[in-house]
Amino acid sequence: MTTAPTAIVTPAETRPRERGSVLPRSAAMLIMGVCTVYFLLPLWWLLVGATKSREQFTGTDSLWFADFRLLDNLGELMSYRDGLFLRWTLNSLAYTAGAALLGTLLAAMCGYALAKYRFPGRELIFNVVLSGVLVPATALALPLFLIFSQVHATNTFWAVFLPSLVNPFGVYLARVYAAAGVPDGLLEASRIDGAGEVRTFFTISARLMAPALVTIFLFHFVAVWNNFLLPLIMLSDERLFPVTLGLYTWNTQIAQVPELRGMVIVGSLISITPLAVAFLLLQRFWRTGISTGAVK
Amino acid sequence: MSAFLRTIGVLLTSAVALTACSTTDTPAQNPASACAPSGGGPVTLTFTSWIPGIEEVVQAWNAKNPDIQVKVQTGPNGNGGTYQNFFNQLKAGNAPDLGQIEYDALPGFRVQDGLFDLGACDIVAKAKDQFVPWTWDQVSLGDAGSAYGVPQDTGPMALFYRADLFDKAGIAVPATWQEYAAAAEKVKAAGGYITNFSQSDINQFAGLAWQAGGHWFGNDGQKWTVSLADPGTTKVAQYWQDLIDRKLVSSVPPWTTEWDNAYNTDQAWTWVSAVWGANSIASGAPKTAGKWRVAPMPQWDGAQASAGNWGGSSTAVFKTSKHPYEAAKFALWLNSSDEALTLLNQKANLYPATKAGANLPALADGVAFYGDQKIYEVFAKASTQVPSGFTWGPSMTATYANASDGFKAAVSGKGTLLDALTAAQAYTIQTLKNQAIPVA
């Protein structure tokens, strides 16, 4: 967007070159366009499907609206089994917002400490964290279940919340950003002015790292919101389910209770909304964050 | 780099240590085969089930049994993750007291030694005669004195058909499979398909084979036998292969909107399905209300009526339960009392496994979607005609997955259904051997 005005003042001699790049550029646009359609089509299908009654869902064109019944469907979803879906949504928000905020803070502090303090074992710790990036969360779910079983803490809020706090990739990002974006001189100045380490971190370093923190927060938010296997293994009380697991559970019961299909569709639409909102609100910061990292 | 390797080493050792300490203490709380009342005050049991509305059924029990309170836990259906959870919980020693397990998954838990043998409970042994005989085969797993669960529901099969379309085209409702194939040609000529052959519901195909006298698995107490391509099954596979070859059946993926649509728009005229299928058609093809009827399954041999079964669950008690007697008592109430069976039928359309269950008032009425036909009378009869002695194997998930791949290929013209079954047979035997389960 910011590059558009500069095109007007582009020197004349560069124009032929631009004209030569029309073909590649339209090819790029075409590929982008195809990808956009590819990614948006399922969302469009979901949106259209969520507005239909059960009869029209099978009977009418699945990519265009029939009678608009989104509000009725929502009402049905919210009242089904005393608002169980609402509870799942709140659970998801609690797991996700809590874990993403706390997890980002932990990752930021850890990454910052690894970048800015020199202490024995620093590289060892960093390497342990890095190896954590290599181990997929899926592979850890079962060992975590066995550990939580030892302390009789499965099927609790904490069984999902505590493991969700950990974000080794966030630590890695925070370290890279802190090393590049927080000048040592500034920290020196702050120390000379008498600020403690904790105050320096929160008032100076964390603010300088803000774009990185948003990136970490978004990554973490998406990861926890979409986390499925851990709650599947840990939880058996449906009042603790996050929305992903709840919808999946309903989806497996469609053969027995066909009404659930409509609810799964509407529920899925609702369950992706927080992600869309988080991205739209934070993408401005995020873009800054990515470019900051790219330049350094 | 060496530091890096070292840390990985540390991680690995700690992981090993963790798994080690978690597997050592699988408790043996009760001496095997003891099934006596616990004594000493009220008992709380946990019960994992994915039946929609099970909470309300259990509430009815809790209200009347202050000394045996049951707590419901839930999750996705068995193959959707709950079975895997059961296995994990058995390993960690925190499995629920009771769990819902489908008949075809029961042997898998049996070979892992995860189930309490309710045959030791006199109340269960006494209740045996209340159940339809073939359902007891599903839980006794080849040993007459054993019961690794209490049969819950069944899926006796029948023929759902569009009475209006058959009338209009002047086709008689087929009573034998021969007539069914002949009708398929006429239906094709009238612009429809007699049915959709399901590429992935191997359980449905098993029901068809079961009706024809197929026996897929056997267990003599020592070794398993696998015979996915026995004469009965071969007959069924060749029959459907012929219909596929002549393009007399459609093959849209089942349980999709496309599939619903075929039924909703008169493209598919019949469905050989289980009792619970009544609800699937009613919700998937709402435009056809009042036009469907139910007839007995077409027969291979006119003289002896036989029916297949598709689906059904049991309520099992896990070996780790500290209160097997109380658990057995609850499982019996859940699956044989009129009160529970009526509730289960209302909430989740479960069709009971008991003999008396067929006479529930809820199953006596005509169903509006089927032109007020008393469809459950057909299924009640079918339930008594399901052949005894059919057993499932201990690795059905693997068998289904492999056979389903083969069926999909056969439907698209690569190989035949029989090829798929032969391949699944070899694959199943290999899977059992890999799990160190003895195969003949």
Can you give a write-up of this model?
- The complex is a heterodimer of chains A (296) and B (440).
- Chain A has 296 residues and is mainly alpha-helical.
- Chain A folds into 2 domains: 4-68, no CATH class; 76-295, MetI-like (MetI-like fold, Orthogonal Bundle), CATH 1.10.3720.10.
- Helix content of chain A is 77%, strand content 0%.
- Chain A contains 16 helices and no strands.
- The longest helix of chain A is centred in the C-terminal third of the chain and has 36 residues, at 260-295.
- Chain A starts with a helix and ends with a helix.
- Residues 1-14 of chain A have low confidence and may be disordered.
- Chain B has 440 residues and is of the alpha+beta class.
- Chain B folds into 2 domains: 25-154 and 312-363, Periplasmic binding protein-like II (D-Maltodextrin-Binding Protein, domain 2, 3-Layer(aba) Sandwich); 157-310 and 373-434, Periplasmic binding protein-like II (D-Maltodextrin-Binding Protein, domain 2), CATH 3.40.190.10.
- In chain B, the strands form 3 sheets. Chain B has a 5-stranded mixed β-sheet, with helices on both faces. Chain B has a 3-stranded antiparallel β-sheet with strand order 8-5-9. In chain B, strands 6-7 form a two-stranded antiparallel ribbon.
- In chain B, strand 1, helix 2 and strand 2 (68-73) form a beta-alpha-beta unit.
- In chain B, helix 2 runs antiparallel to helix 14 (338-348), helix 13 (324-336) packs across helix 14 (338-348) and helix 16 packs antiparallel against helix 17 (417-434).
- Chain B is globular and about 70 Å long.
- Chains A and B meet through helix 4, helix 7, helix 8 and helix 15 of A and helix 1, helix 3, helix 11 and helix 12 of B.
